[in-house]
Amino acid sequence: MVSSSKSELKSGNKVFLAPTDRNKEIILEQLRPFLDSTNYVLEVGSGSGQHIYHFAKEYPQVVFQPTEYDTSLFSSIEAYTADLDAGHNVLRPIELDATKQEHWKNIIDVSRQERGEAETAHGAYDLVISTNIFHIASWEVGSGVVRGAGQILRPGGFYIAYGAFKRNGKFSTESNAQFDQTLRGRNPDWGVRDIEAIQMVAEEEARMTLVEIRDMPSNNYMLIFQKIDVEE
Ligand SMILES: C[S@@+](CC[C@H](N)C(=O)[O-])C[C@H]1O[C@@H](n2cnc3c(N)ncnc32)[C@H](O)[C@@H]1O
Fold it and tell me: CATH classification of 8-227 is 3.40.50.740, yes or no?
């Protein structure tokens, strides 16, 4: 990631994103009930690694698997998590392009090796999280994240997405509508996505149900999906 804005700084290998720093505690507060009863968490798009470091610091008993599309950020993720005390379990980041089926398959293979499990065809994770991906990536990526989460979650597990979204095609505020225009100006494939479109992919292609939509500060939402609790 190239240092391109005032909100992005670099110290050694650590990339520091100011918005990520501001929302890390707000997000953790919502995740706590899920992390309390979780063994294995995978984060899609760990970015700088600030979030996973913050969450793992609080939950040493949970195994966290970071992933990132931009492999140049691996050194930042690893630099943050190197600061954790022994016993905090963050695994090495894995490359994940959410549109690539072979990358999701690789995640299942790696988790199987890590845990010494002979045959975990799917259902490897209790919780999958992603923050601020859908609006700043193509729809192909966003829908790929949903399909992939459905693939790697165990039955009954949760997928939690945080970020800016529309509801029923409507922006929650005028500033979110302007944000959408700015994003599309930067890249025509980007833009604030409809919760209902994501829900459709989850329900029709990923065996997940949207169980809750939480209002979050700064006009963001947290979407909580649960994998259907029955193996085929
Ligand atoms: C704004 S950053 C969010 C980083 C971090 N989650 C945070 O909240 O600070 C957007 C993220 O979108 C992810 N992304 C973009 N294209 C992707 C793709 N094809 N597959 C998976 N993730 C992708 C990148 O990995 C990047 O981390």
Answer: no
